[in-house]
Amino acid sequence: MMGKIVNGIGIFVLTLVAVVAGGFVNDKLHPAPEYRLGENGAIKPVKAAGAGGGHGEEGGSKSEIYFPIDPPLVVNFEDGAAVRFLQISMEAMSKDQHAIDSVTKNVPLIRNNLLLIMSNRDYQSLMSREGKEKLRQEALAEIRNIAKKEDSPPIDDLLFTSFVVQ
Fold it and tell me: Mean per-residue pLDDT for 18-42?
C-alpha cells in the first residue's frame, strides 16, 4: 500500500515538473506580445506580430508593418444568370505606424467603401490578372482618400492575401 502511494506521489511530481518546464519553454519560444493603451482608449500591440519576419520596427530602421483587414470581405455579383461570390482577404502595408493606426481607427468606413467598390464588378474582369490589379489599385486609392480626409499619412500598399471567386 505504501509503495502505491509513493509511486502516485512520484508520478504527480514528475507530471508537475513536465508542465512547469513545458510552460517555461513555450514562453521562451513564443513570448506574449506587449500591449499599450492608445489615444482613443483602444489596446494595441507595441510590436506587430512576427517582428522577425519584416513586421514592425527593429533597431531604429523602419521596416514594413502589415495590418490585416479582417474578416475577409465577401460580396455577391451577377454573371449572366448566375449569382457569384467574391471573398477577398487583404492587408494594408506601411512603414509608418501612424498610417496603420489610421487604418485601424477607420476599419468600418474602409470596409464599407471597399464593399461598394468590389460589388460593382463583372466575372470576366475579376478572372484576369489585370482586372485583379485594377481592383487592388482602386481599393488602395480609396484607403488613401480616407487617410487624406483624416490628415493621416497614407498606407504604402494594399496586398490581396486571398482571392476566391465562386
Answer: 78
